[in-house]
Design a protein that fits this description.
Radius of gyration: 18 Å
Strand order of the largest sheet: 6-7-8-9
Low-confidence stretches: none
Number of domains: 1
Order of helices and strands: HEHEEEHEHEHHEHEHHEH
Structural class: alpha/beta
CATH architecture: Alpha-Beta Barrel
Oligomer: single chain
Strand content: 15-25%
CATH superfamily: Aldolase class I
Distance between the termini: 24 Å
Shape: globular
CATH class: Alpha Beta
CATH topology: TIM Barrel
Amino acid sequence: MPAVFNLSIDEAVKEAESAASLGIGGLLLFGLPLEKDEQASGAWAEDGIVQTALTELKRNRKLDSLVLIADVCLCEYTSHGHCGLVARDGDHYEIENDSSVELIAKTAVSLAAAGADIVAPSDMMDGRVAAIRGALDGGGRQQIPVLSYASKFASAFYGPFREAADSAPQFGDRRSYQMDGANMREAMREIEQDIAEGADMVLMKPAMPYLDVIRAARERYDVPIGAYQVSGEYSMLQAAFQKGWLEPERAMIESLVSIRRAGADFIVTYFAKAAAKLLG
């Protein structure tokens, strides 16, 4: 993705300082471990890459204005690339929902302990919001909000991120736990369930192909709603910019305004710095 890079922790701190100076409200953190395994052990390790980054970012007083949101998932840490633990029998495999949820809750607690202001489960396992809320409350972290990827669709638009994070599934796909893009009613049920389990905010992903879902959720639920303009959306526009087919600044802002107009209270986007410079 043009102008988007995997960063070492020292470089991530510099990037965060730049974001704070531009008035950006927060950062959503993802991490790449040195090694991956079937148990995703790097996800909850005290010295994990995101845990270490959070500690460094929190030490920097220049970053006090930034809300640090930690993505909570196992896919970047599993050797097979799925968002949960996998039981395999020859060519047959199943995602183990309940045991995955235990590790996801453990990961959320670890990230909160390292300094995350908000934890954001993106795995789409059933019951994970309730498990995370219970684990946080049981550990004395009742004040940490949960931003749930409550409406995350099985989408072709995640491709560039998965390549960058080396997190594409090594077998099968994620359609057994991510949502069918044709099923609006399921999206509303998923959002309602996550709110009932204790989600303080919800996030829609992807954004532009699902503006109608953002609008439907905005009309139905009185919680903060965000939208994630994902890697494929960003890269698609960047490719058009490089070809000279679209005017970069106008197209970028128009894409973000469409998401805001649909009802998103906040937007996660790789255009954040460019948009902030333009709007500032």
